[in-house]
Description:
Layout: H1 2-80, H2 86-114, H3 125-134, H4 136-139, H5 142-197
Helix pairs in contact: 1-2, 1-5, 2-5
Amino acid sequence: xxxxxxxxxxxxxxxxxxxxxxxxxxxxxxxxxxxxxxxxxxxxxxxxxxxxxxxxxxxxxxxxxxxxxxxxxxxxxxxxxxxxxxxxxxxxxxxxxxxxxxxxxxxxxxxxxxxxxxxxxxxxxxxxxxxxxxxxxxxxxxxxxxxxxxxxxxxxxxxxxxxxxxxxxxxxxxxxxxxxxxxxxxxxxxxxxxxxxx
Length: 198
């Protein structure tokens, strides 16, 4: 009877001992899933950043093309209106100032978007070594290693995502300004042509 009681007392203890190990295994599996997903999310944000930079370079190219077109019209246009009245000359000068002003504003926004800002990056090997030595016992566990990876990926992802969102806002405004500048060029050219040749 006494042996049966001892067996009954030890059986729950064995169950309690295996439960934490099972929980740790499940948690480790979950952490590994989060870690793999974090890598995909981070790569996605890096691709997004590259696309935003490409778009900003496209705006700079458009700026160059429109600027060359405007500058090529300066001499013939001013020669044509040299004999016209003061109103026509003022209208033409206003047209050029507004067109270049809008484009320069777009170019400034693109320059700000392309500016390299301070982001969160992975720790250097030396810092990682120091952190591992400070938490030596914890870092021997696979669970702690996965948790550390997730924290680092999370910090870098949030930093990169916030920077990308900021860049998108600037580039979107620059896009709108470029479209406005192009529309202004056609509108102003039509007005000047109508006034001069009417």
